[in-house]
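Subject: Interface between my chains keeps coming out wrong

I've been trying for a while to get a sensible model of this assembly. When I model each chain on its own everything looks fine, but I need the whole thing in one frame so I can look at the contacts. Pasting all components below, labels as-is. Any help appreciated, I'm running out of ideas.
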Amino acid sequence: MRMTDNNKDNKLEEQLEKKISRRNFIQGTGLTVGGFIIGGSIGAFINPNLEESTEKVETVTEQPEPAEPKEMPDYTEAMQFFTRKEDFEALAAATEVIFPEDDLGPGAIGLGAPYFIDKQLAGPWGSNVDDYRVRPFTNGQTPLSRGDIMLQGVRKLNEISQERHDDTFNALAEEDQIALLQEFESGDIKMSLVTSGEFFALLRQLTLEGCYCDPLYGGNKNMEGWKMKEFPGAYMSYIDVVESKEFVKKEPISLSDHM
Amino acid sequence: MAKKLDKVDVVTVGVGWMGGIVAAELTKAGFNVVGLDKGKEKNLKDYLHTHDELRYTHRGGGTQSLKSESYTVRNTLDDEAVPIRDQGMAVVGEGVGGGGSHWGAQTHRYYPYDFEIRSKTIEKYGEDKIPENMTLQDWGITYDELEPHFDMFEQMAGISGEPDPNYPERSNPYPNPPLKKNEGIRMFEKVVKEMGYKPFMIPTGTVSQAYTNPDGEKLNACQYCAFCTPNYCEYGAKADPVVTVIPTAQKTGKFNLRTHAKVIRVLHENGKATGVLYQDTRTGEEFEQPADLVVLTSFVFNNVRLLLLSEIGEPYNPETGTGVIGKNFTDHHFGTSTTGLFDDQKFNNYATTGAYGMSFTDYTGDLFDHSNLNFLHGGEIEIRFSGNAPIATNLTSPDTPQWGKEFKKQSLFYHNRALSLVSQKATLPYKDYYLDLDPTYKDENGDPLIRITWDYSENDMEIHKFIQAKQIEILEKMGATHILPAPAAEHFSGGLAYQHNGGGAIMGVDSSNSAVNKYLQMWDMDNLFVCGASAFPHFGVTNPTTTAAALTYHATEGMIKYLKEGAGALV
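Reply #2:
Try treating it as a single job with all components included. I did that and got this:
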């Protein structure tokens, strides 16, 4: 994230504008608000251009760029779940094969998917806290947590890469990486208490989540995933767009805009 | 030892749509109602940051945790059932409002044929048309009897829509006009009208304009923000028990809502319910809540499970076909869909609501001749916009790998170049398909989980083939570059996407083949009512809530009569 004082001031001004249009919105709907929608930050929710024309919707969401943005380090980019860097590197390389950088835009690594995955696995979902975990596990159901599956899977990627190519997965030629992931996908690689096909499905799902989730989770950095897909994110209203015959392209906004 | 509380007039088990309707109607009639819900309290303040695909679609935010309880599934009587373990696969509403908070709010009525399906089928085609193992039954109520109650639900929920030209006239118009039409809808409408069908905008509880319902509850106008299901509506623009019937009940001062209160038994003595035993899910403390009337208003699985655990009614036996509790279970998650990709046209598919689209019903019920068809009933066909969620939606032309360079390129290209046709189909009941208690898997209290025995039938597969051929024809006429018919799964996996399940405590005309009468009153226990889609003897074509709610409104009239006039069966 780049945030200069200049940009902060602009943000403040925007917030103020939004608070004003919130009142317009509520009046426009004919609703008495008394106690109905509560919460101090609601102003940030309302598309400031709710009552304006479609063309205008497109233009106003452009964020003013600071004159000379300073690069800030991203202190969230470190490991919460993985303990060995080589495991994380295999994971990162695999996500990039699934969703590679190209002339359309960044790949999984550029979008932050590997760090996103690390954070997801470190949380309750990674240890299946809300799942039914009572034994026995029969008929091919795995007793492993999502974290266990991912850890075993990425180590297996490195293990086979070492056996066949005498190198780690991230160092392999692209075609070898693709061929190996295809073997995992087809379920041909022997794993313990889970199939390689299940591991691959989880890896693919997590990669796509890391490319397209709200940036609040650490993936879809700078909403670049949404920009490539022309998905506008977390707007509160499209009532002015819905009937348009032409496609209306909108710069995306994220949930941080709602705070 | 459970702590015994003071007796009340009515206790409801679960406070979603059905519990909320019972609470509103019974408190308005002057009775004291206690609503017990095992989930958490929530209100509009919880809905404000809901535009989050990861949290709600993929991580089950807003659905029940399976940590302490799940359900098990098998396809045939000979299989060993396995539990559904992944919370993301089991969409069961959680907390006050239940599924009614995260539903898509599609609100068709069931058709006249549905309520008298056995008689009408025999009348037209003879008894031989019904396969031997299909346990098709009349509901014990007619469409005409239920019509005013459909209307009550629609007025309460502010339904926006226009009449389906294929079905009977309504006593009142929908309270709000239909939603606006987008370009995809306009294209669909033109083509299907040319083909001779009679399309109409899907009726929905995401309301088209600001609305105040007969109880004085206000709904806002839908903004087409697309985060409708499985999310919540931050505008209060979606009919939800939390913004309609629950506040209505609370305003009377006669409704006592308790959360984190999991009912573990219906208590009964000498053929009468005496109350319920419930547990505070946080402390494990147990309470006995005595009541004159006990109303089960939770999801299908829990309604049936509580009857079985409490030993009320005769459990269904799939070998002999005798008994009633668990009978005629139906799952309704087998949607038939086909997607068209349009290389030269982009659509604003990110702008939508939960049930946004246009439908026609020319292939439902007995509107078309089944003489030479090897299935009964049918399905509607709709163009539906589910919002282009970017994690879940990755469309490519046929035979493209599902990851890697070409996948990325195509899934980006087609993201806004697709239109989908979806069909909901009727699901008819079979002798072998039912609910009972699982012999192996238990909840955290040591009580057995509910077990589903169910699979797709030949009837399901035949409707699927018939309907998908029509979908393909429509997309061809609409000019799609590529057409992607979604293949049918071979077997039911047990995953739920939108809580369309029915049966298990079905309604009917006598106690030999149904659990409840037309007032949803247990034949075997006249002060116990079981409300919701658990009463459906079969699953009609469309979403269950409107019909379940209409039956519940009808049932509340029976409850009030029962409380005022004293003991006895209502029919």
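Reply #3:
Confirming on my end. Chain A touches chain B through 66 residues (CB under 8 Å).
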